[in-house]
Amino acid sequence: MRVRSLIAAGLIMFIAAVPFVSCDRFSPEAKKAKHRERGLAYYEKAQYQEALIELKNVVQIDPKDADAHYRLALTYLKLGGLPNLQAAFGELSKTVELDQSNQDAQLKLGEMYLLSQQPSKAREHAEVVLASTPQNTQGLILHGQSLISEKEFEKGIAELKKALELDPKHIPTYLTLAQAYLQMKNVPEAERALNEALAADPKSIDAIVAMGDFKLLTGKPDEAETQYKHALEVAPDKDVLYFKLAGYYQLANKWPEAEATYQKLAALKPKDETPQLILGEFYKQTGQREKALASFQHASEVNPSSTIARDKLIDFYLDLGKLDEADKLVQVISEKNKKDLSARYFDARLRLARGKADETIEILQGVLKDEPQHAGAHHILGLAYAQKNDIPQARRELTEAVKLAPNLREARTALATIHLAEGSPDLAIEQAQAALRLNGRDLVAATILGDAYLRKNEIQKAKQTFESIAKALPNEQVSRYRLGLIERNEKNDAGAIAHFEEALAINPHAIEPLDQIAAIKLTQGKAKEARDRILKQIEASPKNPLFYNLLGKVWLQTKDAAQAEAAYKKAIEITPDLPLSYTNLGELYLATGRQDQAIKEYEAALAKNPKLVGAHMILGMIHERKKEVDKAKAKYEEVLKLNPKFGPAANNLAYILGEEGTNLDQALSYAQTAREQQPNDPSVADTLGWIYYKKNAYLKASSLLKEAVEKSPNNPIIHYHYGLTQQKNGDLAGAKKSLQASLKLSETFPGAEEAKKILKEL
After folding, report:
1. Within 13 A of 271's CA, how many CA atoms are on the CB side?
2. What is the pLDDT of residues 434-482, one digit of tens each?
3. How many CB atoms lie within 10 A of CB 619?
């Protein structure tokens, strides 16, 4: 019995002890302590994501644990990035709310307010610290910085000097002091502060670089270069110093020195892809494409797992038009993950480069659904809409790209192009200048800037812009061509020809300057000189079909159709796939009354390129002239498939449908499209007015037809349409006058017999 009772007693004691031990081990305080211990251990090992999870568990258990909030803030700051900085701000705010005595939290929160340009709030936190410890150096510095931010320079400087008395070796304070003096335009005191910083620590990289910046700012570039070089001597392993020196060289247009500096860094770190990427960007910016490609390829070889190097290489392949090479890399990404954002973005760019704008738009809309802030996707989407001639939508997308990524130079340049096309030169200038601030050697942006000045008739500014391009880029022809246009506009034919000849010397295959020279000669009545100059250029570029097309036009202008025909046929012989030669030959046949031959040539042009809007349009007009209405309609419909906003085709198709009277709603829709695109064209106003007449909307018809008559007073059909509308509106005197005007201009126009009949009735 005794043994049994001892066992029973032991069991009772064990069972009683178990709940006691279990409650202690799994109590909230124990859990909190365990999470805190793990979080701090992870933080010490720089495993910040793991630390974050553990510290979040601490504040979940105890939301009022000020130290845990503080540790969380420090972890977020270590992780970096805007979302984490925002989270750190929240945790610091919670920390000081729970524990005002945490001075480091107060100071860090104050610094964040200062960075967000809220100096008064920053000062509040500095004052909390200084109230308990008036000699706190960081508190004095924050207090001083907040005062300086509000232009209270004297008070702010006094605070910084107090901090320096307490810590005369604190280099950042000297630098802040120097910046304050510079804001006050007190250059001697700024230099004194920088010299004191260097005296306190002659090897301070920050102080040496700051002195270099000061020398550059005060117009002493050679001394600035000396300081930047000295910084590299002190710390040859710091990448940022190479970038600083190379950046100075670029600013000073010392391109070989900049290249050598980047190359030195690349040689110093042969297993790091970053210097190669920077070097590639430098070569790209300076137009050294082959070197840029080699650098991007090298970067990918150095680190095959670098997505940045891979994307830079794909991007540059696309810039170079090496679509197959880009496609191979994109396929590799897609095979691993079909939903990869980069793969889809680059796939869209590939499709756009291949002229598949609709497919591009569809892909990018998917990308933006997943990542609405993707500036690159907005940029390329804008280009795709521009390719479809949907200019308003292109402008919206490019504007969004620039908003999301202000440094996306290519988007700014594209937006400048759109603004110029829309007739907004001021907006074009704004975007072009912004692009040039990002890269002063952006030829496209500089050209747009000059063109925008020309559009505003600010000739001198345009001339200066193109002269700057010509000076900076001796082998660039576009600026010479534009300068020639300016001289021609100013009636200086000799100066214009000189610039056009310079352009041809740079690029003997360029058609535009040769076209201008020929035009000047023809205007001067020197047709033979024009032909001789073209023939001379053909000797330099014998396989250039554009030159033969130009020769044909010159022959045609001098009424020699046989020679023109021979020139166009020679162009076709050289390059059978060039549609222009066929369209020119078609125009020749039209001009000489050979419509069937014209149709044949335009059809040949479309066989080479089915997307030639102009060829479809002309064929539609020929068929309409030949009373082949169904064929004409088919051609106009083909044009509108290619470009739904092409006004001339919409207008002509609307008129045909209006005359047929079978589908007036569709006719009205086409006419309204034409009106949107060509609001000042009297023939468009006539078409829209005539269709409103057919739909019995006589008041609307009357205002449009009155406008058409005023703008095109010599068109009998428009007078006829207006007269009929006036009759329906009860203006019989006006109707009589308009119908008489129509018959006075022509007694054989379509509708003339009807006009005569109505006049008899009136």
Report:
1. 0
2. 999 988 878 899 999 999 999 898 999 999 999 988 887 788 888 899 9
3. 26
Q: How many CA atoms lie within 13 A of 398 on its CB side?
A: 24
Buried b / exposed e across 219-229, counting CB within 10 Å, b at 16+?
Answer: eeeeebbebbb
Angle 698-711/682-694 helices, nearest 10 degrees? 160
Q: How high is the pLDDT of residue 242?
A: 94
How far apart CA 572 and CA 113 sit, in angstroms, is: 70
Structure tokens at 274: 């970053």
**CA-derived radius of gyration, the chain:** 38
Mapped onto helix, strand or coil, the DSSP state of residue 254 is: coil
pLDDT at 574: 82
Euclidean distance between CA atoms 625 and 631, whole angstroms: 11
Taking alpha carbons only, the member of 103, 123, 98 closest to residue 113 is 123
| Cβ pair 210, 181 in contact under 8 A | no
Tokens of 308: 């940045």
CB 605 within 8 A of CB 592: no
187 in the Ramachandran plot: left (φ > 0), alpha (ψ -120 to 50) or beta?
alpha
Residue 577 has pLDDT above 60, yes or no: no
pLDDT confidence bin for 752, thresholds 50/70/90: confident
Residue 6: per-residue pLDDT = 36
The DSSP-derived string for 461-496 is: HHHHHHHHHHHH-TT--HHHHHHHHHHHHTT-HHHH
- What pLDDT sits at residue 440? 80
What 306-313 contacts at long range (C-beta under 8 Å, 24+ apart), as own/partner pairs, is: 306/273, 307/342, 308/273, 308/277, 309/273, 309/276, 309/277, 311/342, 311/346, 312/277, 312/280
Whether the per-residue pLDDT at 586 is higher than 60: the answer is yes
